[in-house]
UniProtKB/TrEMBL annotation:
It comes from Paracoccus liaowanqingii. PANTHER family: COBQ_COBB_MIND_PARA NUCLEOTIDE BINDING DOMAIN-CONTAINING PROTEIN, P-LOOP CONTAINING NUCLEOSIDE TRIPHOSPHATE HYDROLASE. This is ATPase. InterPro entries: DNA_Partitioning_ATPase, MipZ, P-loop_NTPase. It comes from the Bacteria.
Amino acid sequence: MAHIIVVGNEKGGSGKSTISMHVATALARMGHRVGGLDLDVRQRSFGRYVENRAAFRAQAGIDLPMPLMAMPAEGPDPLTPALQQLERDCDFILLDCPGSHTRLSQMAHAVADTLITPLNDSFVDFDLLARMSPEGEVLGPSIYAEMVWGARQMRAQAGGGAIDWLVLRNRLGTQQMHNKRKVGGALTELSRRIGFRVAPGFSERVIFRELFPRGLTLLDLKDVGTEAMSMSHIAARQELRDLITELHLPGVAVSF
């Protein structure tokens, strides 16, 4: 069966679609068969990213690896038929969830083998995971963490294995070091209480916004004629390598 990776967070602007596209492309470039589902039926950022890639590939005549995309089905169970369609041809299936609570997103979390939650490094985003006192004490899980707990229970009742949950400290800037330490400490404390791993994601870089219109990722730059990599590009590529390594995906040896 395909290994299902879900990228989820009930807040927009955390970098889910960028993470989804880079993880999917990295796996495809390493020779794995990758499928994708964009569950944000309104914004479709991940789906449009892939469509941009297909258009650029056709225009430029470059053979860029792409995930095999499917659409949620109609009816009471829109997810299972799409997953069954992709499982016939894929080693990994990546589901990009909307930045809000929907039934489709809840169903996706319940089938996740690996859950990636990008989180902007602020207490505004942290509030989705945990409630905090004015003094900074972690009081308990909040709305998104409670939804993940419910998904874990649904998965256990269906006879599935455990969900490996990775929270990414994403879009890190270079300022506000004191705030970073406080957020980091709160995440570490919470991770022990509700069972997730913490890892660094992608720093805030202009390159990510520049890549989207052509559907490109950091791994495609040499293919499109970018021979001289800047220090920022090299650092961003290392962040992606570290992320793929940290995911601990079955049968994946990082080779880019």
